[in-house]
Design brief:
By secondary structure, the chain is mainly β. The chain has two domains: about 1-80, Pectate Lyase C-like (3 Solenoid), CATH 2.160.20.80; about 100-185, Pectate Lyase C-like (3 Solenoid), CATH 2.160.20. The protein has one helix at about 175-180, and strands spanning about 5, 10, 25, 30, 45, 50, 65, 70, 90-95, 110-115, 130-135. The strands form two sheets. It has a seven-stranded parallel beta sheet with strand order 2-4-6-8-9-10-11, with no helix packed on it. A four-stranded parallel beta sheet has the order 1-3-5-7, with no helix packed on it.
Amino acid sequence: MNLPLIIDQDFKKVDFTKNELEKAEYDNCSFIDCDFSDSYLTTISFIECEFIDCNLSNVKVKNTTFKDAVFTECKLLGVSFTDCNPFLLSFSFNRSNLNFSSFYKCNLKNTHFDTCLLENIDFSEANLSQAIFLECNLNQSVFNNSNLQKADFRTSYNFFINPELNSLKQAKFSKEGALNLLKSYNLDIE
């Protein structure tokens, strides 16, 4: 399916819940203060696009392409990134809320999460090698058979990662954060 190509466009304060975003390949476009909540973004491509102060909660992203997409101060509640097109999947998140989303089996190598709310996220079987979690709240997020090699958790908090169920080689933790790795052993540490 050949999609129309839309290049270098700015979309500001558009309510895509009323008028669906055109199925196209968006290249180097900006979406500012737009509402996509509960929208279908299926089969749309976002190449080097940025989303600023947008609501993307509960969007459907089946076969959606995100390549070098940047989300800043966005609301992305309950998004199943698992359904995205895995080819060249890459994005970064800054000061965004991704609570209740899923990255199950996603390749997130080198992904940056900067000052994000990441509560109740499913990171099971995801490749998070060399990912950076900068000042993120990971309360109730699930890491199960996840590749966390060289991932950086030094400034993040409220995470529970079982070292026996995840690959942690050369992962970085603060001294306080490293204690979270011992929770699965039910130790009394004072």
